[in-house]
Amino acid sequence: MFTVLKTKLNYLSFVMTYFFYYFSFAIFSCLIAVYLLDKGFSPAETSLVVSSSFLSSMIAQPIIGSLSDRYSLKRVNQAVFLLACFGGIYFAYASSLIACIIGYSFVLALINGSNPILEKLATLSPYKYGAIRVWGTIGYAVGSQAAGIIYAFIAPQAIFFTFVLTLVLAMVGLYFAKPDMKKQQLLQKAKNKQQHTKQKTHLFSLFKNHLFVQYLLIAGVFFSLINIANTYIPAMFQAEGLKLTVVSNILFWAVLCEVPVVFFSYLFMDRLSNKILLIIPTLIVLAQFFSFGFNLWLPIQVFWTLFAKHPASMIFVMMNLKIVATLIPEDQQISALALIQTIRNLASMLAQSLFGWLLEKSGYHQMFLIAFGLIACVLLALIFYRIPKSPKQKIFS
């Protein structure tokens, strides 16, 4: 009986960690474009704030990944969460453009930096990946809804104090969460083997893997376009006449559409080939950008937002884990995941600058037409990408 209770409490700790981490992530970032535009910043200045966060994340993520490879995953991320709380308080009082850039960049560098480590931690838990990660999806959905309610009915600034509170709760959950001992021992064995043979597995050695480098380029373009959509979809729907509360509801249901993808990931992620699992979300995003770019009937745009905004990107996030497991030795996998995030943020930083300028010059629909052309290029690259079918071990079952 004691063992059963201990197992339930451990599961509750993982639930608490993932629910409140993704809740805090959503509430801090999902309405950032609306928040900055309402404060009087231009679209170009808004893009500058967001793109600066990608630059800071690009710098921070390899460092956080490397520290997590060397030391305790939990302790490193608890320290990261604590620093992010201080950053959230600072950003709540930021009023100038420079202050907003500093505050937002600092917080997002830490939150984005911890993201691949938490994805890895979900695979090290005693439970199925989907049974843990689904709570992150639910947390993000609730956070998106809460952001709209707090913004509209309390005060815009209050969303950042809520961010701090929920991130503290995530820290508490992480402190009590205990990974599966066998999985942890396998990871530690790989690290010890690397140290024993004195092989240099520093970050730059990952660039010798040509298939991994190709994936970095593909993932960089894909995620940069997803980030553009995530930044501007709320403002675009507002510009088309929807109220902020309606937009928040759309974002809420868009995240909930991710739940079956995550929860039932064990049914398809280990069974379908890597290439198929990369092509499917790319096709979905292609359809989404087509509906935005050609300004189709608004309900069609909302439909593709529900179907593509989170489910498609979540499949690609899970594919990061699978591709890294396929191509990278176990002792370097966290560093590889951090490198993917770094390239993702570098590409997103460049894309935010370019698309912010395009938005000011042309408008939302012309901007998404360009995004449609770029995602079509990603699809073409994937067709010719010679990736092995799957890793040796199952990750999601």
From TrEMBL:
**UniProt entry tagged with the keyword ATP-binding:** no
Give the way it sits in the membrane.
Multi-pass membrane protein
Q: Where in the cell is it found?
A: Cell inner membrane
Residues covered by the Major facilitator superfamily (MFS) profile domain: 10-391
Q: Which domain of life is it from?
A: Bacteria
GO cellular-component term (any): plasma membrane
Report the transmembrane regions from the record. Answer: 12-36, 79-111, 132-153, 159-177, 211-230, 250-269, 276-298, 310-329, 364-385
- Keyword check for Transport, yes or no: yes
Single GO molecular function: transmembrane transporter activity
Q: Which keywords describe this protein according to UniProt?
A: Cell inner membrane, Cell membrane, Membrane, Transmembrane, Transmembrane helix, Transport
Q: Which InterPro entries match?
A: MFS_assoc_dom, MFS_dom, MFS_trans_sf
Which Pfam families does the UniProt entry name for this protein? MFS_1_like
Per the record, the major location class is membrane
Mind telling me what this protein is named?
A: Major facilitator superfamily (MFS) profile domain-containing protein
